User: Fold this.
Amino acid sequence: MRRDVLDLRQFYASDLGRAARAMVGRKVLEAWGDARGLDVLALGYATPFVAPMQGKARRVVAAMPAQQGVEVWPADGRNLATLTPEDSLPFANALFDRILVVHGIEESPDPIGLLREVWRVLAPSGRVVVAVAARNGFWANSERTPFGHGRPYSRQQLAELLREAELEPSGWTRALYVPPVGWLAGSAEGFEQMGSRLWPGFSGLLLMEAVKQTFAVKPRAKRARLRTGRPLLAPAPGGAPASRNSETPAATNRLEAAAEGLSLAAKSPGDAAP
Assistant:
């Protein structure tokens, strides 16, 4: 069962949530830049991380699963968020250049189906970043944060999941080394610097980037039937009259006579015997 959108909003308004937003947002910025002139989709509850792209990207849209609920986003200006089924995103094929999935697949009843919809709406040259709770991290074992709910993943498990959805992993990184304790949120930057060097396997979050797999479609050869007519007068070897098994001798004689008359008629008067 998915976390309610109100719980997610409350978490990211807390000190620990703001620290998580800063650490993860930095990783996304390192991977994509400011996404200038690109179409960006925030899937799940990824709006805290794509907000800096507004005004630089050509389009930033948020899609939130129906079981989670949706909120108006951004708070000021025209709403850019929509409520959507997980297995049927309301977007055209190959529409988005960048897709960020956060709080998306961990609590999904069908993560493969969700990622295949990501594949469908991702442009052929597009890139997707999927963020999940790391299996060995502290955040996956703490239910006080949204990352402590649902299924955590190891790097190998996430890579296999993406490949099954025809998304080829192209890179990965880690984030959130600070323990999920509110009073340590102010030290998140220090934990991030030390954790990546001293204990990289105990990060709270795993981020993996993937690209869309496309294959050339080769048309299959199709066997076609050739309809041929059966000649009425087939050539017979040795001067024997051509006949079908079912023909009577009288019918054969009539056919031979007709053939002889046709051959004589084809001769010119000059060819006739004197």
